[in-house]
Every structure is written in structure tokens, then in C-alpha cells.
Amino acid sequence: MSAFKFENTADEVAAALSDNIRGKNVILTGASPGSLAFEAAKSIASKQPGLLVLTARNKSLLQQTKDAILTDVADVDIKLVAYDLTKQETIRKGVSEIKGFNVKFDAIINCAGVMAPPYALTEEGIESQFGINHIGPFLFTNLLIPQLNDGATIVNVTSRGYQLGNIQWDDISFKSTPYNKWHAYAQSKAANILFSSALARRLAGRNIASFSVHPGTIFTNLARHLTQEDYDMLAGIPMEYKTAQQGAANMVIAAFDPSIKDRIGAHFDDDNQIKAIPEQFGYASGIENEERLWALSEELVREKFAY
């Protein structure tokens, strides 16, 4: 069980886990200013990691993140890699750039994502939320598995928004179904949970853990597409607001807390505790769903990954 509570911040968690962060090589995606990844990166950087690789689509925004970190921590090694999660070719190029650093990594924290945008397709014709929130991280992570140390950890940031709709297996991209941005968001976040569990099973032999985390309800740049009508639609979902520093906390817990390593594949709720997926949302759990998602994901990236 995690020793941390709802109100703990990423800075507090990093301070408590500093011995487990020191010297570790970490990849953190979506690290633009104003994001949860930005907060997690600052907290991790303060505890002397070995190499901190920050990714996002915009290189200039990544540079702003790096500059902000170096203002407080002058001696941390930070490398920036820009790629676009809507274009699989650029994801592959980003991975090649990371492999060129010639280091093994101890943690991948997949935080990049989008929430409830207007309907759009990725370059490969995949609905943008499913493409950015799941297919991109699926490809990015699997391509980097050979670069992970045994005992490494993979963290996938999900959301309680997975409860807003099941997985539309036969029309993932809403090509024959009217687009519902919250249903699309929900299935992408359910996919994050299933992917984490599937990875944990596949990589258990290398003692590589994988977790999904719901950071909580936080006002960040992720909400840039939301209207008042959208907020009204979410009013029925129980939620308690957090600061960005609090929202970034369970990413750091999942990545570095040795006390939860035996719970590989588990899901962290916003109280920083591991929780089972409720039975009524069974589409977000179970080996059958994990395998169905894995097969679909391999089809959409046109590559198979076997471990």
C-alpha cells in the first residue's frame, strides 16, 4: 500500500523517494509548461536523476520547461526530444533519437495526451484521442522496451473519465458512428489501463512493472478544448480538485516507490492508493480485453511486439 495521501504533492513524494530517484534515467512525455508532466519533471529533476529525457510535440515549449528546471537545479542532465503523437513516423524518429543517447532507462512516464477536442484523425486515420492517448504511447513504449533496465517501471497516465463510455471495438475511430468526444476520451483512457496491465504481464519476467494512474481533477492546459457545456456534462462525476503539484504526485509514486513493485499492472486512483476497477466498468479490465486491445493496437501501428 502506498504511504501517500490525496493531498501529497510531487515535491513531497520526490523528497520521500529521493534515494530511489537518484541516478535513475527517466523519460517523461508531454512535458510542456503548464502540464502535469512539467510538475513531475521539476520534482524528479531536483533529486539528482541520471538522465532526464523530456518529450513533447513543440521543441520550443520543451526548452521553456528545461530552462525553468535549470533555474532551480543547475546540475541535472536534461535532453529534449520533439515528436508528434498524431504521426507514427515522427514517433519512430523520436525513439531513434532517444536510442542514440546510448543509455538504459529506469522509468518511462507517459503523460502526453489530449481531452475532448473536436473530431480529427491522425495521419494514419485513427480518431485523434485514441491515437494520441493510446496508440502513440503504445508504439513509443514498445519500441523502447529494449532500452529499459530490468526492474524498470512504465507509468501510463489515465483518467477516471474512462467511466464515461465503453470501448467501441468495432468503430474505434467513429467513422460510422456520430462522434461523441467524451465517449472517445473514455475509450482512450480505458485503453491506458488495459495497456498497463497487458505490459505488466508480458514483462514480469524482467521484473518490469507497469501502472496506470488517475492524477485527479486539475486545471491544466489539457482542458483547453472544454466549454461550459462540457463542464456541465461532467457535473455528475464525483471529483475533488487538486493543484498541479498534487496531480503529478502519483506519477512519481508509481515510477519510484519500491513498496508497490509487487502490484505490477495495478491502477492508482487520485487518493494515491491502488484501487480495483469497479465491476460495472469491466471493459477497462480483464485479460480478454487486454489481448483484444493489444491485437488492435498492433494492427494500427503495423508491427507486432512479443515478449
From TrEMBL:
Keywords for this protein: NADP, Oxidoreductase
One Pfam family of this chain: adh_short
Matching Gene3D superfamilies: NAD(P)-binding Rossmann-like Domain (3.40.50.720)
Domain of life where this protein originates: Eukaryota
InterPro entries (UniProt xref): NAD(P)-bd_dom_sf, SDR_fam
Coiled coil: none
Family statement: Belongs to the short-chain dehydrogenases/reductases (SDR) family.
UniProt protein name: Short-chain dehydrogenase
Organism: Aspergillus keveii
